[in-house]
Amino acid sequence: MEERLIYFDNAATVWPKPEGVYKFMDEFFRTHGVNPGRSGYDLALEAGSLLDKTRKRLTKFFGGDEDAPERLVFGYNVTDALNLAIPGLVGEGDHVITTNLEHNSVIRPVNHMVRDHGAEATYLPFNAEGFIEPESVRRAIRPNTRVVIVNHGSNVIGTIQPIKEIGAICREHDLTFVVDTAQTAGVIPINMKEMNIDVLAFTGHKALMGSMGIGGLSVRKHVEIRQVRSGGTGVHSADPYHLTDYPWRLEYGTPNMMGVASLWAGQDWLDGHGVANIHRQEMALARKLVDGLRTIEGVKLYCCDSLDNHLSTILMNLEGVDPANVGVMLDVDYSIATRTGLHCAPLVHRQLGIEETDGGVRFSVGAFNTEADIAAAVAAVADIAQWAREHQSKNQNRLQQVAQ
């Protein structure tokens, strides 16, 4: 019988998904797999109804403007969403404040706006515990600052940023506050109004329990994002220019209705289990993982001395072993899936001093992991650490023999 894979790569994508998500997607595709809003027949109208209801449901879930659910717009993923928001908010001469915690989905669009469109950018470092200090945002503000972009939860070290406090500073200075919730949507309660978030970018395939290929933006009513694309909308087809009304302002072509269906079913699952309960369960396992790893000689942990305000994402390295090799051994010898390398967030690793040594090994605990999974992971790392010590000792003995 094939050995069960122990999956600790939930920061990349949550897997498996709840059974109800699989079932609803299959049923919807078989019975309503038509193009919504492009025709007046009943099936198209029913598909469009799910699209509209999901907008409303997610707007409420994120604490957005419930009287303007059309400002919940769908895209492919959080990277796609940020590539709508950033060029649509930043122009020549504008200054952007962002952080060393960001994913390349922020770093690269911001850098392109600087290099190609004459914008300016400041990247704020995180403190020793892995947090952005709100006052550092205030100190970085310039007369031409227009946008602040912050990763709510780091996909590398798992720290949850003080979004409400940073947002209050943005509100005080009339700055647009964009928050990347790729790691937190579905696992940390979010309220855009209470947290002073102007634009929220989300992806479906992580803790929202949806499929790959779906994500989007929730945009508050007082914010306008310039259009950076154009194309079909299914309405007002005679208009030679792209529509300026939401959601079409930021949506283009046929929507990913399978993805929308997955988000709807994912909301059902989250409603049944409770976001706060899911986070509590994941963090209980993450604490057991950290406690176990700390007992292993040669293990280096990052930014998790305290797991307060933290996701269940843990970064480690093992002395004397390349992180990629640790990942391969965990996979091949122990059937444990982790993620190694720079995790598409090179500035985090640079600040931690591990960019040049190929980053680290990331364990990201999910809602479907168990205490047995944690125990297996700790035991596996202990075995690899023991092998590394023995291997290093043998090499040292050989060197001493050669020297003699």
Task: List its traits.
13 strands, Aspartate Aminotransferase, domain 1, globular, 11 helices, alpha/beta, Aspartate Aminotransferase, domain 2, four-stranded antiparallel beta sheet, 404 residues, 2 domains, seven-stranded mixed beta sheet
What does this protein structure show overall?
Strand 5 (145-151), helix 6 (163-172) and strand 6 (176-180) form a beta-alpha-beta unit. The chain has 2 domains: 6-14 and 274-403, Alpha-Beta Complex (Aspartate Aminotransferase, domain 1), CATH 3.90.1150.10; 19-272, Type I PLP-dependent aspartate aminotransferase-like (Major domain) (Aspartate Aminotransferase, domain 2), CATH 3.40.640.10. The protein is globular and about 75 Å long. The protein is 41% helix and 14% strand. It is of the alpha/beta class. The model has no long low-confidence stretch (mean pLDDT 94).
Task: Furnish the topology, listing elements before pairings.
Blueprint: E1 6-7, H1 19-32, H2 42-61, E2 72-75, H3 78-89, E3 95-99, H4 104-117, E4 120-124, H5 134-140, E5 145-151, H6 163-172, E6 176-180, E7 199-203, E8 215-219, H7 257-273, H8 275-294, E9 299-301, E10 313-318, H9 323-334, E11 336-337, E12 339-341, H10 346-352, E13 360-364, H11 371-403
Parallel strand pairs: 1-11, 3-4, 3-5, 5-6, 6-7
Antiparallel strand pairs: 2-8, 7-8, 9-10, 10-13, 12-13
